[in-house]
Amino acid sequence: MKNFRRQVGALAFALGVSATFILLSGCSADLVVDEEEDEFKTMHERMVATQIEARGITDPGVLSAMRKVKRHLFVPESLWDIAYGDHPLPIGEGQTISQPYIVALMTLAVEPSKDKKVLEVGTGSGYQAAVLAELCGSVYSVEIIETLGKRAQGILAGMYDNVHVKIGDGYKGWSEHAPFDAVIVTCSPTHVPQPLIDQLKDGGRIIIPVHEDGEQELVLLVKRGDELMRESIIPVRFVPMVDDTGATY
Fold first, then answer.
1. 31 and 112 housed in the same domain
2. pTM for this structure?
3. Using CA atoms, how far apart are residues 55 and 50, in angstroms rounded to an integer?
4. Which domain holds residue 20?
5. Residues of 101-116 as b/e, b for ≥16 C-beta within 10 angstroms?
6. Residue 67, in any domain of the structure
7. CB 155 within 8 A of CB 138
8. Residue 143: pLDDT above 70?
9. Is residue 210 part of a domain?
């Protein structure tokens, strides 16, 4: 059923008849939709089993969220066929949706729970925010690229009432809603932004890709009073964190 609806639409246009007529002449439209959904469901389950569980992530909450959020809805329709692949994908404006495993890993790192308020820096497609929304009480997400932020906001608004998106410079956080129990950063600065540290609760966690010495590393920080406990996780590759002029932090 790959690309079936798009092919039917193109054929209908060429023949000057309705897509509904074409569909109904062979099988019901409902059957076509059901078969396409079954295909996505199969790819989705394979993604969780082979990319996430097989790599050691076994937390029931994280696995449930990764199974529930439909990744293909957060990428361009032209990429739906590969939406559940083991790789990032372009979403426009030079930005990407992260590899599924990285989304799961970063979610796990902040120890999500329904009593937590989480800040996300870099809304992007909205996929990471959706996964967080399944597990956390509230999610505040900041996106500096207006077109992406508004698109993600539109998608998320139809799914969740606990996700809040604003267009702005994520380096500065979202002070009006601080302090946060956790911060997830989906773009890479050369240092950990001080405003994000300041807006984090004592005992809170930040997961962030930091670009130092020519390399990016995913780093977990835990705030203990005036100190930050730091743990390096894995090497990664994220888009850089930029300000509203496009200059990198």
1. no
2. 0.85
3. 8
4. 4-56
5. bbbbbbbbbbebeeeb
6. no
7. no
8. yes
9. yes
Do residues 102 and 216 both lie within one domain?
yes
Alpha carbon of 196 to those of 148, 169, 193: distances in Å? 22, 12, 6
Query: Tokens in use for 192?
Result: 């950990």
Total structural domains within the chain:
2
**Closest Cα to residue 108, out of 207, 187, 26?**
207
Bigger pLDDT: 156 vs 7: 156
Nearest-CA neighbor of 183 among 124, 147, 223, 154? Answer: 223
User: What is the pairing mode between strands 215-224 and 227-235?
Assistant: antiparallel
**Residue 134 pLDDT > 90, yes or no?**
yes
d(CA 156, CA 165): 9
Same-domain status, 39 and 159: no
Residue 98 known to be catalytic? yes
Question: What CA–CA distance (Å, rounded) separates 95 from 73?
Answer: 16
- Alpha carbons 208 and 49: distance in angstroms, whole number: 25
pLDDT (tens digit, 9 = 90+) per residue, 164-202?
999 999 999 999 999 999 999 999 999 999 999 999 999
The predicted structure's pLDDT at residue 30 = 55
H or E stretch at 195: helix 194-198
**DSSP assignment of 77-113, as one string?**
GGGGGGTTSSS-EEEETTEEEPPHHHHHHHHHHT---
End-to-end CA separation in angstroms for the chain: 45
Catalytic annotation, pick one of 28, 98, 113, 138: 98
Q: Which of 50-54, 112-116, 143-147, 210-214 has the lowest mean pLDDT?
A: 210-214
47 and 102 together in one domain:
no
pLDDT tens per residue, range 1-37: 444 344 433 333 333 334 433 344 455 545 555 667 8
Contact, 228 vs 203, CB < 8 A? no
